[in-house]
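Suppose you are handed a protein chain with no further information: no name, no annotation, nothing but its sequence. What can you learn? This example shows the usual starting point.
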Amino acid sequence: MLNLEYIRMFVIAAEQGSFSACARKTGKVQSAVSQAINNLEIDLGVTLFDRTSRQPVLTEAGTRLLKMAQGLLVQADELSKTAAAISQSQETRLSIAIDDGMLTPAIYALIARLESRFSTLELDFATLPSHDIALAVESGKIDLGLMFSEIESMKTTDFFFVANVPFVAVCHPSHPLAEASKISSTALLQHKQIAVRGSAKRESQFLISMASNVWWCSGYQHALSLLLQGIGWAYLPAFMAKDALITGKLKPMDMVFDHKTWSVPVDIITPRGRLHGPVVQWFSNELKKTLAEEF
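A reasonable first move is to predict its three-dimensional structure. Written in structure tokens, the prediction is:
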């Protein structure tokens, strides 16, 4: 059986360029490094280094085997980290679902920090409409969801209110409502609305449609893309519409009933009664901080 410590010294010696450099890096005497690599060569039945010059040089066989050895060490390190995580009751897998109406750059940055902190974690990351997130968490298919509040989900999941996301009414500059003032709910009836709902074809209680003709999407990014093509009007998360409003690709709509910016509550939800390990606890706490700063 191959000795992992021998393989590690082979890789370090090859990367550092000498046995003496490997000895310094590993805190061993040079003779120990030389003996370990000799033993590895005997076990493998090949010569890894040409020692005829002052500094050992990888042979053709050594060069071919180096990448495999480096990969083997990565796998061994991952094995050790995963075993340690299991022994500490740390989750090895996490499934999360986030409504794209709150997928700001800060949320993606948080997911990057999750990877850095729990490098062996296997992540399943989905973007779903809020109602679908509620159903997935309720059934136990998703460990943690970030969604716009649903009254019904509060009865079937554990939830935590974390923020309010501002929404703005927008349309394309060429749309008939782009230059209209004091737009009433009655005036909206005759104009196509772009709205979001899930697979059960159920609207959010906080994001109901207002027009008689509605085109439905499964996410706000899809709705934004349709608006940019000059199709309909919609309420979008303000952060998502910001750049298009600045560049004039979208126009804000003057709604008579929006005295203040309309905001929609956001919840973190988890399966009811489930005990959480350190990964879910950390991610949930960091989500709360991130959303508090974002909104």
